[in-house]
Amino acid sequence: xxxxxxxxxxxxxxxxxxxxxxxxxxxxxxxxxxxxxxxxxxxxxxxxxxxxxxxxxxxxxxxxxxxxxxxxxxxxxxxxxxxxxxxxxxxxxxxxxxxxxxxxxxxxxxxxxxxxxxxxxxxxxxxxxxxxxxxxxxxxxxxxxxxxxxxxxxxxxxxxxxxxxxxxxxxxxxxxxxxxxxxxxxxxxxxxxxxxxxxxxxxxxxxxxxxxxxxxxxxxxxxxxxxxxxxxxxxxxxxxxxxxxxxxxxxxxxxxxxxxxxxxxxxxxxxxxxxxxxxxxxxxxxxxxxxxxxxxxxxxxxxxxxxxxxxxxxxxxxxxxxxxxxxxxxxxxxxxxxxxxxxxxxxxxxxxxxxxxxxxxxxxxxxxxxxxxxxxxxxxxxxxxxxxxxxxxxxxxxxxxxxxxxxxxxxxxxxxxxxxxxxxxxxxxxxxxxxxxxxxxxxxxxxxxxxxxxxxxxxxxxxxxxxxxxxxxxxxxxxxxxxxxxxxxxxxxxxxxxxxxxxxxxxxxxxxxxxxxxxxxxxxxxxxxxxxxxxxxxxxxxxxxxxxxxxxxxxxxxxxxxxxxxxxxxxxxxxxxxxxxxxxxxxxxxxxxxxxxxxxxxxxxxxxxxxxxxxxxxxxxxxxxxxxxxxxxxxxxxxxxxxxxxxxxxxxxxxxxxxxxxxxxxxxxxxxxxxxxxxxxxxxxxxxxxxxxxxxxxxxxxxxxxxxxxxxxxxxxxxxx
Length: 721
Ligand code: C2E
Ligand code: CA
Ligand code: CA
Description:
Helix content: 40-55%
Largest sheet: 8 strands, mixed, barrel
Strand order of the largest sheet: 20-21-23-24-25-26-27-28
Number of domains: 4
Distance between the termini: 106 Å
Bound molecules: ligand C2E, calcium ion
CATH class of the largest domain: Alpha Beta
Number of helices: 28
CATH topology of the largest domain: TIM Barrel
Oligomer: single chain
CATH superfamily of the largest domain: EAL domain
Mean pLDDT: 85
Structural class: alpha+beta
Radius of gyration: 47 Å
Shape: rod-shaped
C-alpha cells in the first residue's frame, strides 16, 4: 500500500511534486476526505472507479458498490464511512470486501475498501483516507487452484519454492509418476526429466520469471512411454509485493490435434498407395526453393516405369500397385532425408535433390550419378505374386539454380519431363539430361503430329526393304521399313514419327497403308521368287484395334496375297497385354497362314512363358545383344541361350543389326540355321533397288532361290533428302 507523504517530519521544500502527483502513482484507488466527507483528493485509479468524475459533490453516489457479486444489493458506502471514520484512535479503521462496478470492466470486480484516519499535529483525526484495492488477481488464483482439480488438462501447482504440491489426476496420468513421487519433485526437476522444449530452456525460465508466464509446444516423454506432443503453460503467481507464491503448470495433450493435422497433411500432400509425397508437395517445395536466392544447383529427376501400362493391363491392377510400392520403397531408400521423393501420377515418380553443389560441372556429375544409381537400382527383376518380371525405368534429369525465365515450378517439371520422354524414345531404361534442344524437339513433335494429320500417304510415305540372309548367304526375306519424306520436315526416321503416330493413333491408318502396299509388293515378288518372305512391323496400337483381324482379312481378299509369304513382326509388349485376347488374335492370324515373329526379342520384361502358349514362328534377337558380340561374354551367352531355346521350339532366329563380318562369322559358327539382317549385308532400300540388288539375277525358274548376297560395299544407301 502506498502511504501518502504528509507534512509531518518532512519539509515541503524537500518535496518537488504535488500530493496529487504522488497519489496518482498508486496502484490502489485513493480518496482523501475531509471531516465533512468532502473529497479533498482523488487519485487516478479512484477516478476510474468513479467513472471519471472530477471531485464530484456527490462522491458516494458515483461509486457503484455491491455487497455480493451476484446479488444486486447496493452497499451504502456513505453510511459505512460516516459510522466508521474518525471514530477510532487507530490509523487503520475498517476494511470491507465489496464488489465494484467500474466504467472499464463490464463485470463486478472484487475490491477491499479500507478506511484510515489521518491525524493532525494535535493527534486529532483530521482527514480520512479511503483506499480501494483491486482483489481480482488474488481471487483468480484461488479460482484457478479450485478449477485445476477438476480440469481435463494435466495441471500442477507448486509452493513458493517450486515444489509440486498439487498434481491433478490428469497430470499424474500424463507423467506416469505417482502423486507421492511428484510431490518430492520441484517443477524444474520434472521439466528436466520429462519435457523437451522447442526453445532453449533458459528462454523459458527467463520469460516465466520476468513476465510471469510461458506457453509453448513441448514433447512430453513419460518414463518408457511414447512421446506426447502438448502445449505447456507455466504461470508464476505472486503477491502484491511480487513475492512468488505459486507456480502453476497446465499441459494440454496435442496428440489428437497432431494426428488430425497429420491426417489432413497426408491426404493433401501424400500419395495413399505408396506413402510418398505427391505432386502438390513437389510444387510447393520447388516454389519454395525458387523464392530464395540460389547459390547452389538443385536436381530434379523424373522417372517412369517402362511398359507399366502393359503390366497393369495384363497382370491386373493389384500387381501393378504392388510394383509401384516396391519402386517407391527403392526410391525412398536411395534418398536422404533432405531430398523429396514423389509419386507424380500413375507410374511416374520424381526426386528433388535440393542444393547439391555450387559448381555447375560438379553438380552435373552428381546429378547424373544419382540418376544412374536410380536407373540401376530399379533395373531389376521383381517378384510379384509368384511371378518374376523384369522392369526398368526411363529417367529424365533437369539441373537448375534459378527460376525458369518464363514460368514457375510447372516449367521445371516440364523440362525434366521432356528429358524423361527422350529417355523413353531412346528405348527406355536410359538416363537423359535435359538440354535446350528438347524444347525444340517437343515443338517438332507437335509439328510432326500436325503434319501426320495432313499427310498424303501415297505422296509422302514409301516402303523400304531390308534383306534377311541365311547362314549360307542366301536372301530369305525382306523386312518392310517405312520412310516418311515430308515436304518441309524432310526425311523423318520411323523411330521419331512412329511413337508420335501411335500417340495420335494415326498409326492405325498408316499401318493399314503399309500392310496394303507390302501385300501388293509381296504378291508381285512372289511371282518370280517363290521362297521370298516379306516381313511387316505391326504396332501394338494397330494390333489391339478391335477391327484388326477384319481389316487384314479384307486386305487379303483385296490384294489376293498369300499370307503364307508374309511374316508379321510383333513386339513382346503386344503379347503381354490382354493375353487371352492377344492369344486369340494371334491364333486367328496363324490360321490365316501368317508367320508370327517376335521383334526386339530379349528386351521385354516378360517371362518367356508366352512362348509355350503361342504359335510363334520366329524370334528376332535385338540389335543390342548383337552389337558387342563376340567380345561381350554376357551377350554371347544370351545369344547362345536364345538359339538353344529356338532350336528346342523349332523357331527361326533372326539376328538384327549385324554390322561387321566378325559378327556375321561368329553367328554362323553358332548356328547354321540363323538368319541375319544388318548394315553388313544391306541398309533398308526402296523396292526397286532391293530388286536390283537382290532379285534381278534370279532366273525365271520358280524353284530357284533368290540370289546370294552381294558384298556390303555394294549395298545401296537410302535415298537422301
Ligand atoms: P525394327 O523393327 O527393329 O527395325 C530395325 C531397325 O534397325 C530399322 O530401323 C533398321 O534400319 C535398323 N537397322 C537394321 N540393320 C541395322 C544395323 O546393322 N545397324 C543399325 N544401327 N541399325 C540397323 P528403322 O528403319 O529406322 O526403323 C526403326 C523402327 O521403326 C523399327 O525397328 C520399327 O520398330 C519401326 N518401324 C519401321 N517401319 C515400321 C512400320 O511400317 N510400322 C511400324 N509399326 N513400325 C515400323
Ligand atoms: Ca522389325
Ligand atoms: Ca527389331
